[in-house]
Amino acid sequence: MPLEQKDQMNLLKDILTNHSTDCCGSVSECEQLERLVKSLMVNSELDHNVKNVLEQIYSYSQHGTNTNELDQHIESHQEQLGQWVSEIDQFS
């Protein structure tokens, strides 16, 4: 059963919040972020500002998937992680 947009946004926020709080994560979480963003981006009714944030999250998750130093990658994006969660909250 596919997740609704609200559920996808909540899952996206949960993963980003966990990365921010724990300063660590897994490649599978980054892959999940990529899948969520791809799924959300196909929605033509999605606010333009949210699409910009989703593109940034997608880039973050791609780099996270391909890095050998995932925890360091997450730590270097602490400020953005919190900002992305706040911005998603505004539009969801």
Describe the structure.
This is YtzH-like family protein. There is one protein chain. The protein is an all-alpha fold and 92 residues long. The chain has five helices and no strands.
Number of E-state strands: 0
Strand content: under 5%
Q: What gross morphology would you assign? A: globular
What structural category characterises the helix and strand content? mainly alpha
- First and last CA, distance: 21 Å
Order of helices and strands: HHHHH
Low-confidence stretches: none
What's the mean pLDDT score?
A: 93
Instruction: Please give the share of residues in helix.
Output: over 70%
> Tell me about the biggest sheet?
none
Instruction: Compute the CA-based radius of gyration.
Output: 12 Å
Number of helices: 5
Total domains: 1
Secondary structure: elements and pairs:
Elements: H1 5-22, H2 27-41, H3 48-66, H4 70-75, H5 78-91
Briefly characterize the structure.
The chain is mainly alpha-helical and 92 residues long. Helices cover 78% and strands 0% of the residues. The chain is globular and about 35 Å long.
What would the keywords be for this entry?
globular, mainly alpha, single chain, 92 residues, 5 helices, 78% helix
